[in-house]
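Structure first, sequence second, as always.
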């Protein structure tokens, strides 16, 4: 058992957490399994808020333990899931047996309810095309500071929302901000009879060293990974283009011979 210690934020710490949940008697299932409840179950929910790079390490840990998880992917965050490298990560998650859900951000949605619902389905279709797999679950980005959730109380047919009223008895525990709100997770490890658990984690937050405090992790590990797509674009695409483009070469030649300025 975990004793009195909450898990350390690292890949090894995440593996240990899953092993301890299993040792306590929990099955580890994706969010979609909430539709057919059993007990005791820890439903594994991942919100991908910041970057996709590297999160397949977490997915491999889960698959190696026979666990299934749901990765909620956003289409409106700084990362672009359609980039080749990011799409490859998503494909790997599906190949490992995990599920992909939509992480919708109401700040980017129309105010009208019907228009918002149509927009939701549009994002679901786009995400399904990217991952080439069904998207059957949804959850809201930043519920603590955004508008009231339009889709939790009235979930569109064919979709599952882990915070719908019918799942109110499932305790939600989250690692938001690379921190635990309280020690409820320990209660479940000590007593699986407490009921089913919805474990909400952000896989990006588990990729650093357990020795890093929250702000050190943000300025080192997280910053590097979250900006890697932009750096690669600049160095692998923009820079060679600037060197080869006829306009740029003509400009540089004029500058070289002194004819570029009056």
């Amino acid at each position: 058992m975990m004793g009195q210690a909450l898990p350390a934020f690292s890949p090894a710490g995440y593996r240990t957490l899953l092993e301890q949940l299993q040792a306590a008697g929990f099955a580890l299932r994706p969010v979609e399994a909430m539709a057919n409840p059993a007990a005791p179950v820890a439903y594994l929910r991942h919100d991908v808020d910041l970057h996709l790079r590297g999160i397949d390490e977490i997915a491999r840990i889960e698959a190696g333990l026979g666990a299934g998880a749901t990765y909620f992917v956003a289409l409106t965050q700084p990362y672009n899931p359609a980039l080749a490298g990011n799409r490859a990560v998503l494909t790997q998650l599906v190949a490992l047996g995990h599920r992909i859900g939509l992480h919708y951000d109401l700040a980017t949605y129309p105010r009208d309810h019907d228009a918002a619902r149509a927009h939701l389905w549009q994002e679901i279709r786009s995400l399904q095309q990217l991952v080439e797999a069904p998207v059957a679950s949804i959850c809201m980005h930043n519920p603590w500071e955004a508008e009231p959730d339009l889709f939790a109380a009235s979930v569109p047919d064919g979709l599952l929302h882990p915070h719908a009223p019918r799942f109110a008895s499932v305790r939600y525990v989250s690692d938001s901000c690379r921190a635990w709100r309280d020690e409820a997770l320990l209660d479940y490890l000590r007593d699986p009879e407490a009921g089913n658990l919805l474990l909400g984690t952000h896989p990006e937050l588990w990729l650093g060293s357990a020795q890093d405090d929250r702000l050190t992790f943000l300025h080192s590990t997280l910053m590097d990974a979250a900006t890697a797509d932009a750096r690669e674009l600049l160095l692998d695409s923009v820079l060679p283009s600037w060197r080869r483009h006829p306009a740029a070469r003509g400009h540089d030649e004029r500058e070289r011979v002194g004819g570029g300025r009056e």
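Margin note: DSSP finds eight helices and seven strands in the chain.
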